[in-house]
Design brief:
The chain is α/β, with parallel strands linked by helices. Helix content is 30%, strand content 14%.
Length: 281
Amino acid sequence: MPTRNFCTTSELAAELGDKDLGLIDASWHLPPTGRIGKMEFLQGHIPGSVFFDIDTIADLSTGLPHMLPTPEGLEKAMEALGLGDGMRFVVYDALGLFAAARVWWMLRAYGVEDVRILEGGLPKWIHEGRPLETGDAHPTPRKFTPRLDPRIVASLDRVREVLASGSAQVVDARPADRFRGDAPEPRPGLKSGHMPGALNLPFSEIIEHGRLKSSEALKTVFAEHKVDLEKPVVTTCGSGVSAAILALAAEEAGGTVEGLYDGSWAEWGGRGDSPVATGPA
């Protein structure tokens, strides 16, 4: 399903070694898994890639997990990773499609136009017997100029406005039991439930074998969850990672995404002034 948002393993293999290719390993795992992306990167990654840690390349001043970094913070991190202006980027992760979507969204939010996700990610690359290298990366610093597009990032106030006006659909990518409030949040101190007026489309329903479902299958899933792709969408989740997968899916299905709520439930569910509903959408 190659599109402008995706790169096939064959295409990537043909581009390896190009000085203008920025290859990014964005692997990140939920804390309960016990897996650490950087440790796995050192044990084996696609040749020429650098490791992008969404927990440290983030705005750490908010107290919220892996928030979009400041322009200065991203500029410094990208330059140190050798990811600069004039390059084209391919992002992948160890799960096939998970945190790669978050970095894809992050780069687009900062004005990067040529950024693709490796279709099938590292699992597909390994399954095909393609080469890996071990150890840390030693990139040559390269100038990066961040150009933030605020339309891609939805703030708390923006989400409140959208829910009140109905100008867009707020779609939550968390599992259904967490959305309904039947299961506790994995982060301590957060209320259980969802934003009143939000819709629920668990991100697990748009992925199959580590890849995004076909655009036709995605249209069916969105319709099943009462999401009208003729109307704009704002995506949200637990901490802004699976919301990026949902934004990617909405684009691939022909919808219009008016922003990703960066704070997501980590922010909304931790505030005393944010209303919470339980039960189905």
